[in-house]
Design a protein that fits this description.
By secondary structure, the protein is α/β, with parallel strands linked by helices. The protein is 51% helix and 15% strand. The chain has two domains: 1-41; 43-238, Ribonuclease H-like superfamily/Ribonuclease H (Nucleotidyltransferase, domain 5), CATH 3.30.420. The chain contains nine helices and five strands. Keywords: Exonuclease, Hydrolase, Nuclease.
Length: 239
């Protein structure tokens, strides 16, 4: 009988914790629904290219296949506002990962297990990232990788689809270099005179991608495109 007050305390603690998680999840879902409504009101396809505001982002992961258990380790992003990269408007977070990180990933990214164990959960990081991005379109280099993981995380965490418009840097360079091959981010940077800093760090790669995007925006404008709609229409004619 002496243990009964203790058991009651534990049950109350667990109930409070569960209730807190439920409340947090409800807030997250409400935020996602509101965000999806706001995204419908922004038609970036008609925006002049030099005035586009967007969020350029990159993720580091344990592999290439989220459906097979590969995980997001970090998300980095920087904003482009009215055609200018704003380094002061940036986002970076590691994501909690409790398994042993492969040595190859440690060497490539510089991320270690101790940092990941202290990091926030994926759902928390996703919400913070979406709050940072709001209804702005997203940009990534070879975006299929980011898209797969964001789609998987959005559904797993919030049971909602990933609805942000996502532009790929290839939309621009395919127009300027239609016979070119798909190459790595650092190779594109070298080709365009962009200094390579913090490669394979999510925020570093996001900044490099933003510089690359702005470089090609100038080139596609010189090629006669005024909006992303023009870019898509010209690419369609090349196919």
């Amino acid at each position: 009988m002496a243990l009964e007050p203790f058991f009651q305390f534990v049950r109350k603690l667990n109930n409070n914790r569960f209730g807190g998680l439920q409340s947090q999840n409800s807030q997250h879902l409400a935020f996602m629904r509101q965000l999806h409504r706001e995204m419908k009101d922004y038609n970036v396809m008609e925006e002049p290219l030099e005035k586009i505001s967007a969020v350029v982002f990159d993720i580091e992961t344990t592999g290439f296949y989220p459906e097979k258990g590969d995980r997001i380790l970090s998300i980095g992003a920087v904003k482009i506002i009215d055609g200018q990269m704003l380094e002061s408007e940036s986002f970076y977070s590691l994501v909690r990962f409790e398994e042993e990180l492969p040595e190859g990933i440690k060497k490539l990214t510089g991320i270690n297990n101790k940092e990941l164990l202290a990091a926030p959960s994926l759902s928390e990081v996703m919400i913070q990232f979406f709050k940072f991005a709001q209804d702005l379109p997203l940009i990534a280099h070879h975006s299929s990788h980011e898209k797969k993981f964001m789609q998987h995380a959005s559904w797993t965490m919030f049971k909602t689809s990933f609805k942000h418009r996502l532009f790929d840097t290839s939309f621009l360079y395919r127009l300027i270099e239609p016979q070119g091959i798909s190459i790595k981010l650092e190779d594109f940077c070298v080709r365009n005179g962009i200094e390579i800093v913090d490669r394979h760090h999510a925020l570093g790669d996001a900044k490099l991608t933003a510089e690359l995007w702005l470089c090609y925006i100038i080139k596609v404008r010189n090629a006669g495109c005024e909006t992303m709609k023009d870019v898509y229409e010209k690419i369609a004619k090349l196919s």
